[in-house]
Here is the input.
Amino acid sequence: MKIKAKLVLGIGLLFAMVVLLTAIGSIYINKLSADTKNILVANYNTLDYSRQMLIALNDDGFSNASILKFESNLKKQQHNITENGEQQLTDQLAANFSKLKNNPSDTLLLSTIHNNLTDIMLLNMQAIERKSDVAKKTAGNATLWIALVGTFCFLIAFVLLVNLPGNIANPLKELTESIKEIAAQNYSKRVHFEEHNEFGDLANAFNTMAQKLEEYKTSNIEKLMMEKKRIETLINNINDPVIGLDAKKHILFMNDVALKISGLKADATIGKLIQDVAVNNDLIRSLIQDLFHPASETINTKHEPIKIYADNKESYFEKQVIAIKITPTGEQEEKFIGNVILLQNITPFKELDFAKTNFIATVSHELKTPISSIKMSLQLLENAQIGDINEEQKNLLSSIKDDANRLLKITGELLNMSQVESGNIQIAVVSANPKEILQYAINANKASADQKNIKLEVLLPATIPNVLADEEKTAWVLNNLISNAIRYSYDNSTVFIAAKNKNNKIEFSVTDTGQGIAPEYKQKIFDRYFRVPGTKKEGTGLGLSISKEFIDAQGGEIKVESDFGAGSTFTIILNVFAA
Ligand code: ADP
Here is the structure.
């Protein structure tokens, strides 16, 4: 039965019972009132009239007033005949009284009238008694009916009281519990009200919802698991090693290549702290070097290639540490959730690079000899002993000499570069005289400075300690700096070349008043093959990078200060030779 119908029925029943009780009560009260009224009107009045008539008879000397009183009460009695036999007795009384009026001294008649009155009173008293019994019976019936209906009402009210609140509250309680379970993601929860009422419908709707949620959850988990597998397979199929870490540096995954090159097993690593794994593994140790720096949570870092010996061969990998950040649902700020360490296998590139370096080294080495012999032949040609040459031929020879010099410079730079790249720089630091090194570099540039009418101004202290340097390489660097200063300066300007002792270091500096270097290129000019965009002069972009390698290899420092548009100062700082 529907809850609504139950409530309507329960409350309706109670209402009907209240009406029934009221009706029964009022019916019996009316009946009782009619019974008592009947006694009062029909019998009590007769008793009263009879009593008045007796009093009138007993008055002394049968006066007119007594007669009138008697007659008035007799009249009332004649109109209040209610009982069987009462009419006859009243008629006898009236007849005897008229006789008595004619013969007032007749005592027998008086006594008969007394008897008549007593009979009438007796008759009415008997009636009163009978009617009182009827009233008593009515009261008894009323009590019985009211008690019966009352008990019935009580039983029904009691049944409703016991059942109705539970009928409504119990399913609600079960439903509330079930909703809590669903909220706690226990989607297998079901409710079991089998009644055919609103709660039954509610239970069906709830169970359908829970079933759908369960289906949704399992299908989502399935989907997620599928996606997880897909990503795992994808990561495993990447040919480069990949290691994933959570925010606390636990290893989340290591693909097969990563396991192979590190010689680790998946079950011995997954879920472990990477620093714990690193204790017994050199490769992992080298991979996590800068992982514990706070910046590893924000910056993606790239590093110098690392050499790894695996699979019976040497391989080169470029390490990249990527900080993984997500914006959680409903939040604004990004949250760091871990790192991914990527090792890119650059062995093929390295091999190509080696091949290129070897090729450059071979070619530049092979070119050096013929270029030198060209230069020698040129010198012979310039020599008048071989024969006179005219002005035009002289000019041609001079331009061939310039080109030969340039070729020699380029092959020299390429050879140096190949040495640097293959790590074959031979550095021999000795005690050297700074003045001599400077002089060598200045002499090598004199001719080109003269060509542009550039003055080379040398600033040297009277005495300067010896420097700890590789003379040849340092002179090569200074030569390159002076050559650059001349090339990137305007005609008729001055290039200042200086050496000084500062804080137990020898500082060589070359200052020009040329176009200068824009701040954004100040560091880049030391990169291999880098030339400031728009540079018109011929060049390879190698000189400064070789210079830096040479100076770094000697434990020195090379730097540039430049006022863009006004000139630059290149400085080399090397250690003083301490005898
Ligand atoms: P190259 O001079 O052969 O191009 P370098 O490595 O010597 O190669 O120099 C790299 C670049 O730095 C040059 O191409 C030039 O743009 C810039 N540069 C070097 N020296 C100076 C200088 N003194 N003044 C202005 N720019 C310079």
Q: What stands out?
A: The pocket of adenosine-5'-diphosphate is lined by residues 480, 484-485, 488, 512, 514-515, 517, 525, 531-532, 535, 539-545, 568 (CB under 6 Å).
